[in-house]
Design a protein that fits this description.
heterodimer, A: about 260 residues, alpha/beta, Rossmann fold, 6-stranded mixed sheet, 4-stranded antiparallel sheet, 10 helices, about 40% helix, disordered C terminus, B: about 290 residues, mainly alpha, MetI-like fold, 2 domains, extended
């Protein structure tokens, strides 16, 4: 169980996330929607402490995440894997090494960590990475540089890197915003599959309302940093959408369509 | 407002902006010229002295040119006018040059290794604590501000005459010079991968190693190879103060006006630098093409 209590982040005079309280049960797939700048990214990035909260607390199974530092913080970050809009793979490294990066946090002791710095990974680690790549149909690309892959492939490599961490939950920050519809579907299916198959909790920021409705168990809407809606997809009526976005859903979908078409070309 | 007014207004605004830009450029050039004249005056770079001295440079070059005779060009070292006579001490010079190149190589390696460790601390985007980053940047600045020859004078006093002092002196200066360039390369790298390694639970060193280093490695390598060439020149003169290499020999032949030997040694150094230039070009392309 992940619990947020009055989580707040201020950037100067701007309050990006404003007293968000929330509990996410184990194994839930939570979609977070809202306009650009509504605080979706900041909220996710506070959970793994890439961004420090200004106020409030994060609890995971009763443990205070906001108080962690050093090795405990690194262990927590390994527990909640993050997936980025721009994939954030190391372009000049091969796919296999990119996936193995997910294993760095499991290294214990100075010698093991020094070995990792020299790029020495064990045969077991490689086998684990290759099995993951194979599961997502990417085993053949293992020795290619990441930059040679398409966007959809890169995001799936990023999912492999995340799963290498053997995480408890996955934080996906706009995972499909840079992808064409076919690749977006593949990536959402992959996230859904690890959610259903492995019981991982998934928190997913989404621009695409249709994707949020289709894949998520529960939808949270942010508006100017505050929770504007929290409930199952069925309750997210057109009237509610208009209240959150300030425009009717049909107009919103039409706004998104040309942008998505441009991404494909 | 009339429909056609906006384009005319914008054209007028464009002309005004251009006028202003030109005025600013002219003013800047005038200030630059004034500064140039002032610095020439302070440095006593008077045109009269320049004109007076110029022919003497030519004269010096004329003096150090060897007298070669075509018919004796490939004769033995005993015959005046032959190549062998010009390079009559090639064996000892070659050895000294080899020592010089080794000094340069070792100093570049040491300097580059130290710079590699420090550049991630100094770079603004790599997440090192700010006071530490600032201190590291000042340290690198201090290291590259002090010329090699000054370091060499101090180190010869500490370690005695010989190549060790020269190597350390050049390595120290290289650390400062390369550290700055490396840090700037790191600052130009994308932050995404670094953040991804942190988000995956990797530590600071791991984030730098996997998130930043692969992005900047080709740049760092070409900087280090360029530094190798510069260091070869530095190692060639650092012997002037007794810090090893061919410099001591060069100093001696200059001091004793052994003109032909000066040109012979300078030519050897130029050949050596050219060879390293060719070699480093190859190496750089190889690394840029390689997978990691």
């Amino acid at each position: 169980m992940l619990e947020l209590q009055g989580l707040t982040r201020r950037f100067g005079a701007v309050t990006a996330v404003d007293r968000v309280s929330l509990s996410v049960p184990e194994g839930q797939m939570l979609g977070i929607i809202g306009r650009s700048g509504a605080g979706k990214s900041t909220l996710l990035r506070m959970i793994n402490r890439l961004t420090e909260p200004s106020a409030g607390r994060i609890l995971h199974d009763g443990r205070d995440i906001t108080a962690l530092s050093g090795r405990a913080l690194r262990a927590w970050r390994a527990d909640c894997a993050m997936i980025f809009q721009q994939f954030n793979l190391v372009q000049r490294l091969d796919v296999l090494t990119n996936v193995l990066i997910g294993r760095l946090s499991r290294r214990r002791g100075p010698l093991a960590r020094l070995g990792a710095l020299l790029g020495l990974f064990t045969a077991e680690e490689r086998a684990m990475a290759l099995a993951l790549l194979d599961r997502f149909g990417l085993a053949e690309t293992a020795l290619q540089r990441a930059e040679t892959l398409s966007g959809g492939q890169q995001q799936r490599v990023a999912i492999c890197r995340a799963l290498m961490q053997e995480p408890r939950l996955i934080l996906a920050d706009e995972p499909i915003a840079s992808l064409d519809p076919a690749n977006a579907r593949a990536v959402m299916e992959a996230l859904r599959e690890v959610n259903r198959g492995q019981g991982l909790t998934v928190l997913c920021n989404l621009h695409d309302l249709a994707a949020a409705r289709h894949y998520c168990d529960r939808i949270l809407a942010l508006q100017a940093g505050r929770v504007a809606f929290d409930g199952p997809p069925a309750e997210l009526t057109p009237a509610r959408v208009e209240a959150i976005y300030g425009i009717p859903e049909a107009v919103l979908a039409a706004e998104g369509a040309p942008a998505r078409a441009a991404l494909v070309h | 407002m009339a429909a056609g007014a906006a384009p005319l207004r914008m054209e007028a605004a464009f002309r005004a902006a251009r006028r202003q830009r030109r005025a600013a450029t002219l003013l800047g050039l005038a200030v630059l010229l004034a500064c140039l004249l002032a610095s020439a005056w302070v440095a006593e770079a008077h045109p009269a002295r320049l004109l007076e001295g110029l022919p003497r440079i030519g004269e010096y070059f004329h003096r150090i040119l060897p007298t070669l005779r075509r018919e004796a060009l490939f004769a033995g070292a005993e015959t005046e006018g032959s190549l062998a006579f010009w390079f009559y001490r090639l064996d000892s010079w070659a050895w000294l040059l080899f020592e010089t190149a080794n000094m340069a190589a070792l100093a570049t390696l040491m300097g580059a290794a130290a710079a590699l460790a420090l550049c991630f601390v100094a770079a603004r985007n790599a997440g090192a604590p700010r006071p530490l980053a600032l201190a590291t940047r000042r340290l690198l600045e201090a290291l590259r501000t002090v010329p090699e020859i000054v370091f060499a004078l101090i180190l010869v006093w500490a370690f005695g005459v010989g190549p060790l002092a020269g190597i350390l002196a050049i390595a120290l200066h290289s650390t400062g010079a390369l550290g700055k360039l490396f840090a700037e390369a790191v600052e130009n790298a994308g932050a995404g991968p670094w953040e991804a390694v942190r988000a995956a639970g990797g530590g600071w060193a791991e984030a730098c190693r996997f998130g930043l280093l692969p992005q900047v490695l080709p740049n760092l390598l070409s900087y280090a190879l360029l530094r190798f060439e510069i260091n070869l020149r530095a190692a060639s003169v650092i012997g002037f103060v007794g810090a090893g290499g061919i410099g001591e020999e060069l100093y001696t032949v200059i001091a004793f006006n052994h003109y032909e030997e000066i040109s012979a040694i300078v030519l050897l150094i130029i050949l050596c630098v050219a060879a390293i230039d060719l070699l480093s070009e190859r190496l750089r392309h190889h690394v840029i093409g390689a997978a990691r």
